[in-house]
TrEMBL record:
This is Nucleotide-diphospho-sugar transferase. Keywords: Membrane, Signal, Transferase, Transmembrane, Transmembrane helix. GO terms for molecular function: transferase activity. The chain crosses the membrane at residues 34-59, 127-146. It comes from the Eukaryota. Residues 1-24 form the signal peptide. The lineage of its organism: Eukaryota, Fungi, Dikarya, Ascomycota, Pezizomycotina.
Length: 266
């Protein structure tokens, strides 16, 4: 996980230098672009097939989360590797079911103001890093597009800015926590999204009870377990403007590489 932030900054510095990241000849560049097109199509098909089991939006959230979550994992690992006198307090792991937000930004009645949310997230949740990554990436990308426009050639654009493997979507994934800080979703309590049920374990599995999720209760009929399951309506994917908006640049990027790849094949 520590190599992800380092690679992101290295790629941004290389693009900002103005030097070509691909120095291959035209014929070799065509082969590189064609292979990259096949890789993009394969990844897209793989996502569609994988989403049949868990849902497309759930899969996309998991993939996007790895792009911006590596920042927090980087700081956590760095604190573990550095001496305690320099690193300070270690960042401990908290299970999702036990995590409680200190600012309660998802509760409409207890949600603090925008300034307070930003202050807490900047100081304690590393939001400053996401803002810095997005600002630098947007600046480098805009300057690169201006230089490519001045040169007026697709070759310059593909070798200096839109280089295969530059992973601009990973850099711009920092928009997700920024948007969350500005406009957090309104969510009910966790238990309001779930239905209560009871289950009776088989005798042979009573030794493997998960006490983090199941609570043993004594009833007249014997030992039963209290189980909380997601409500059926919570398993359905809901598409709104916030869900469609991230898909627009992804679709445009895929269309761009398909057009470039078809042009290379001709």
């Amino acid at each position: 996980m520590m190599n992800r932030p380092l690679c992101s900054w290295i790629i941004l510095l290389l693009v900002a230098s103005g030097q070509p990241l691909i120095t291959a000849k035209s014929s070799e560049l065509q082969n590189i672009l064609f292979v990259y097109l096949l890789a993009r199509i394969t990844a897209f098909v793989e996502e569609l097939l994988a989403s049949t089991g868990c849902g497309y939006r759930a899969l996309r959230r998991r993939i996007e989360g790895m792009h911006w979550l590596h920042t927090h994992l980087f700081f956590a690992l760095a604190k573990d590797l550095c001496p305690k006198a320099l690193a300070g307090k270690r960042i401990g792991f908290i299970p999702t079911a036990l995590a409680e937000s200190k600012i309660q930004e998802r509760h409409p009645d207890r949600r603090p103001g925008l300034c307070q949310r930003l202050r807490v997230m900047f100081l304690y949740q590393h939001l400053w890093y996401h803002v810095a990554v997005f600002a630098v990436a947007a600046t480098v990308f805009a300057v690169g597009l201006v230089k490519a426009s001045n040169h007026g050639t697709l070759h310059y654009l593909l070798t200096h800015v839109l280089v295969p493997g530059a992973a601009w979507s990973s850099h711009f994934a920092s928009l997700r926590p920024i948007a969350y800080a500005i406009s957090p979703p309104t969510m009910p309590e966790r238990r309001e999204l779930m239905d209560r049920d009871f289950a009776r374990p088989r005798p042979e599995v009573k030794e493997n009870e998960d006490y983090l999720q199941l609570h043993l209760e004594d009833e007249s009929q014997g030992h039963t377990f209290e189980v909380w399951r997601p409500k059926p309506e919570q398993k359905l994917e809901k598409w709104d403007a916030w869900a469609i908006l991230p898909e627009i640049p992804r679709s445009m990027g895929l269309i761009f590489w398909v057009v470039v790849g078809l042009g290379v094949c001709q």
